[in-house]
Structure formats: structure tokens, C-alpha cells
Design goal:
Length: 75
């Protein structure tokens, strides 16, 4: 394989594997929030606020992986 193909393979793997963690994390967060809302609907405000904040942090990791993949593709 040539260097360009290896570079694109590395960028694809960086993005693919880097998005796996945040995707699983967001799924688990959503599942936990829905269970918590089912048990205690009165705490909706606090649960939703904390869930959205945690999802934003998990999504930031995915965005960092995207930036790294773009940088690897441009090198």
C-alpha cells in the first residue's frame, strides 16, 4: 500500500474508533435518564440538565476525533 492509502486508513480508523466511545456514552446516558424520569418524573429539570451537559461533553470527544481525522487526512 502506498503512503496516501495508509494515511486515509489512519484517518478513517481515528474517526471510526473515536466516535464509538461517545456514541456508546450518549446511548447509556439517554437510557439512564429515561429510567430516572420513569422513576421520578418530578425531577425532570435536574435530570435533563445534567443529561444534556454530559452529552455535550461526550460529543466534544467525538468532535476532537473528527478534527484529528481531518488533520491526519491533510498531512
Amino acid at each position: 500500500m502506498d503512503a496516501e492509502a495508509m494515511k486515509m486508513l489512519g484517518a478513517g480508523l481515528a474517526m471510526g474508533l473515536g466516535a464509538l466511545g461517545p456514541a456508546l456514552g450518549i446511548g447509556i446516558l439517554g437510557f439512564g435518564a429515561m429510567q430516572a424520569l420513569g422513576r421520578n418524573p418530578e425531577a425532570r429539570g435536574a435530570i435533563m440538565t445534567n443529561m444534556i451537559l454530559a452529552i455535550a461533553f461526550a460529543e466534544a470527544i467525538g468532535i476532537y476525533c473528527l478534527i484529528i481525522a481531518i488533520i491526519l487526512g491533510m498531512l
